[in-house]
């Protein structure tokens, strides 16, 4: 069984079950559909929002105060006879000892099971596929042999509007709240009479309405309610001991001002050994709906069978999603990640970007353009139609000169132009990957408006992005770094506009090369010729001036001084220049060998590859934030998993497959988190970084869930290790596996077909196909064009030589 001291993976891998609530940090999960989303911790913490966590936050979560992971979505049960009360999610009444505590984080739902005072509680939180809201389905079982009188308190602290404004202007913000109890429907109807949709922090107050009503209800008969946080909790108390729960008396306050809470009380009696099922439902409807109760078909929604159906639909959605890829290799942990958690995390990053998590408060970033065009890599296999929509939407944030906003916010459609040099180049990356998967070339002729003025086809948007990057090179032909590149913290290398990025040169080369197949397909020979020439020019300039003897430099400052050289005291070697030298195919073989060898020598840690070595210990104003960050963490020398995954890819491409797999395996969360009290964060998903040996908190991880690592680890495994390499024309089967694997099987959907691959490796090889058979017939090439086959399933059998 795959486990650690706080929990284990269920047998089918679909759940991580936490058995001790006192985890080192709150361990989160997500529940969401295309519009409505929430994060949910193993103690019921987390917040919900509609469309965007900054401008349309529905419930509160406090980031900068103790106790952490508060507030949340709580159901407190009270024994009316003894007066004892406890939470069905352990928090907020955490001082109580439970006979059983289990939190099951699954895909799109979290179930917390507790036993306390001879009452078993099972609470399942989920967001239905077809509701702008969430459901907390509860089952209570009386385990005792006497009748029990219980009170049930369901509550969540509301925000309803702009979460940034809630932090900076709450004392004024609270004069616009409205919460009323509708007796007929036993439902709290909650709203706010204004909405701050400012693009930045400003004293200007817009004169507009929050467009929604939020409904909070339960399927149980309601015996009391509260819309006032102050009255429900009471003076000098907290969620852990609300006065209303303690006294059993709800104040039935409807508010027209004040801090809002949605709290309902119900009273139930449970015969001995009997059980009851009920649900708490929270959702939003547009104020355009004159009768929100009718619009939401509340009556039907409140039926348990409707709720069960909605939960089944969530489960089916995830069964279908995960079914797109199935693997069975000799490495259980690899299988578990690929079959469930890595695929799932890729779906989370697709929808949450870097914008809503325990480590991403949802106030600052919105959706990053660079992140967005990578985050499609997972979802594109399961739902290319969603990716199509996403690409078309994101392209609206490009300018007519080919440059882009760096990030954008939904609803306000505002973002910042930060002039990071790499950002526009992720546009072609995402479009080509979409085409590789879907072969939907029609997208190229869609017309999309620019953020400033005018419009162009998707194909033109793509070319403009590349041409903008080419035109942003210095006289000697390297890309200007401008305000940074993929590494956000190399942000003061070129303030005068002369500094150059060596990684950016490799990346530009990679994007050019990646586009050649498309240019050929479009018969765009003029562009092809000029981009090929640029690619060759990059090869020359990079190899003339960016080689440091044993590895490639990272950048040149405005004054021409180097970054990332063996001459330096700190920041001698940066990972990305080495890995992308290989990925871009711009390094000659001897240099590819040497730079990867150097990476291996200086950057390898027990948890993966560190991003730079040695970490900066002295501040370098002319390098950037990297040198102000503590050594060993974040971009300053951590095992930055996203970058580490690229080193794995480079090692595969350069033929060092045993090493590549070794690093891949070190990075798998269950391996890097072996010392879980040190590692701290969720062991079922990748974290952005793991502290390297350069800091005394070595192995502590942070920023779990929302990282580009998710899609890259997924696709490196699928495309390169298992060997399903997609291209515009089809699929090439080319595995790169550890020699210890005697065989493996893997399946993936591709352009309407199921490709079922089984690989035998009798001679303990890493790669190289000896023979290949498709549906019983031997074939010459390992390239598959699915259109050549009428069958739905392609059984591909191969042997490594
Ligand atoms: O590349 C960035 C990413 O866009 C956001 N997280 C940090 C990365 C490295 O700086």
Automatic annotation (TrEMBL):
Stretches of the chain forming a coiled coil according to its record: none
InterPro entries: 6-hairpin_glycosidase_sf, 6hp_glycosidase-like_sf, Gal_mutarotase_sf_dom, GH65_N, GH94_catalytic, GH94_Enzymes, GH94N_ChBP, Glyco_hydrolase_94_b-supersand
Presence of keyword Transferase: yes
Start and end residues of each Glycosyl hydrolase 94 supersandwich domain: 14-289
SMART domains the UniProt entry points to: CBM_X (SM01068)
Keyword flag Methyltransferase: no
Transmembrane domains' residue ranges: none
GO molecular function: carbohydrate binding; glycosyltransferase activity
Keywords: Glycosyltransferase, Transferase
Residues making up the signal peptide according to the UniProt record: none
Name used for this protein in its record: Cellobiose phosphorylase
Native organism: Ignavibacterium album (strain DSM 19864 / JCM 16511 / NBRC 101810 / Mat9-16)
């Amino acid at each position: 069984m795959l486990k650690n001291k706080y929990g284990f993976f269920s047998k089918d891998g679909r759940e991580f079950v936490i058995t001790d609530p006192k985890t080192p940090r709150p361990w989160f999960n997500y529940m969401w559909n295309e519009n409505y989303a929430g994060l949910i911790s193993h103690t019921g913490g987390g917040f919900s929002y509609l469309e965007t966590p900054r401008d349309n936050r529905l419930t509160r979560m406090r980031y900068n105060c103790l106790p952490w992971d508060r507030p949340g979505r709580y159901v407190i049960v009270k024994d009316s006879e003894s007066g004892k009360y406890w939470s069905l999610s352990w928090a907020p009444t955490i001082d109580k000892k439970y006979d059983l505590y289990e939190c099951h984080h699954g895909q799109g739902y979290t179930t917390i099971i507790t036993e306390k005072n001879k009452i078993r509680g099972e609470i399942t939180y989920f967001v239905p596929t077809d509701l702008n809201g969430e459901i907390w389905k509860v089952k209570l079982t009386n385990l005792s042999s006497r009748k029990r009188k219980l009170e049930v308190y369901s509550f969540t602290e509301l925000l309803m509007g702009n979460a940034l404004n809630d932090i900076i202007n709450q004392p004024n913000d609270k004069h616009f709240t409205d919460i009323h109890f509708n007796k007929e429907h036993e439902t709290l109807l909650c709203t706010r009479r204004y909405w701050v949709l400012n693009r930045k922090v400003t004293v200007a107050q817009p004169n507009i309405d929050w467009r929604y009503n939020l409904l909070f209800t339960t399927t149980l008969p309601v015996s009391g309610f509260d819309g006032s946080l102050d009255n429900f909790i009471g003076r000098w108390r907290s969620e852990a001991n609300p006065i209303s729960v303690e006294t059993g008396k709800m104040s039935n306050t409807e508010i027209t001002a004040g801090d809002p809470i949605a709290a309902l009380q119900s009273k139930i009696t449970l015969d001995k050994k009997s059980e009851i099922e009920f649900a708490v439902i929270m959702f939003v409807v547009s104020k355009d709906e004159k009768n929100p109760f009718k619009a939401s078909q509340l009556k039907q929604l409140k039926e348990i069978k409707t709720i069960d159906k909605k939960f089944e639909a969530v489960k089916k959605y995830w069964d279908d999603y995960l079914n797109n890829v199935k693997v069975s290799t000799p490495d259980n942990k690899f299988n578990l990640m690929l079959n469930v958690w890595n695929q799932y995390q890729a779906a989370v990053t697709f929808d949450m970007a870097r914008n809503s998590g325990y480590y991403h408060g949802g106030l600052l970033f919105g959706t990053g353009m660079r992140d967005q065009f990578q985050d499609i890599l997972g979802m594109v296999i399961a739902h290319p139609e969603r990716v199509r929509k996403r690409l078309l939407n994101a392209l609206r944030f490009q300018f007519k000169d080919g440059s882009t906003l760096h990030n954008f916010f939904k609803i306000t459609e505002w973002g910042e132009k930060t002039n990071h040099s790499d950002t526009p180049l992720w546009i072609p990356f995402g479009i080509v990957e979409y085409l590789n998967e879907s072969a939907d070339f029609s997208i190229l002729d869609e017309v999309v408006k620019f953020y400033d003025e005018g419009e162009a086809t998707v194909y033109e948007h793509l070319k403009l992005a590349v041409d903008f990057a080419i035109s942003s090179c210095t006289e000697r032909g390297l890309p200007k770094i401008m305000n940074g590149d993929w590494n956000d913290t190399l942000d003061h290398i070129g303030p005068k506009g002369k500094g150059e990025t060596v990684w950016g040169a490799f990346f530009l080369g990679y994007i050019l090369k990646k586009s050649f197949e498309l240019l050929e397909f479009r018969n765009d020979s003029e562009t092809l010729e000029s981009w090929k020439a640029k690619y060759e020019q990059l090869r020359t300039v990079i190899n003339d001036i960016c080689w440091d003897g044993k590895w490639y430099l990272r950048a040149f400052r405005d004054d021409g001084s180097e970054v990332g050289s063996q001459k330096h005291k700190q920041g001698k070697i940066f990972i990305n220049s080495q890995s992308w030298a290989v990925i871009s195919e711009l390094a000659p073989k001897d240099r590819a060998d040497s730079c990867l060898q150097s990476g291996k020598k200086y950057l390898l840690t027990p948890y993966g590859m560190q991003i730079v070595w040695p970490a900066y210990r002295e501040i370098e104003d002319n390098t950037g934030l990297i040198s102000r960050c503590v050594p060993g963490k974040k971009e300053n020398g951590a095992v930055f998993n996203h970058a580490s995954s690229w080193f794995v890819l480079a090692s595969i491409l350069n033929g060092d497959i045993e090493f590549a797999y070794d690093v891949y395996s070190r990075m798998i969360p269950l391996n890097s988190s072996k010392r879980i009290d040190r590692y701290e964060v969720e062991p079922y998903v990748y974290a952005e970084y793991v502290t390297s040996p350069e800091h005394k908190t070595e192995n502590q991880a942070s920023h779990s869930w929302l990282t580009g690592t998710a899609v890259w680890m997924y696709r490196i495994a699928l495309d390169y290790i298992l060997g399903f390499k997609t291209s515009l024309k089809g699929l090439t089967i080319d595995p790169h596996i550890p020699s210890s694997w005697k065989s493996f099987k893997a399946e993936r959907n591709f352009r309407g077909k199921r490709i079922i691959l089984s690989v035998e490796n009798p001679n303990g090889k890493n790669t190289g196909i000896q023979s290949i058979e498709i549906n019983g017939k031997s074939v010459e090439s390992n390239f598959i064009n699915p259109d050549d086959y009428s069958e739905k399933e392609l059984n591909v059998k191969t042997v490594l030589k």
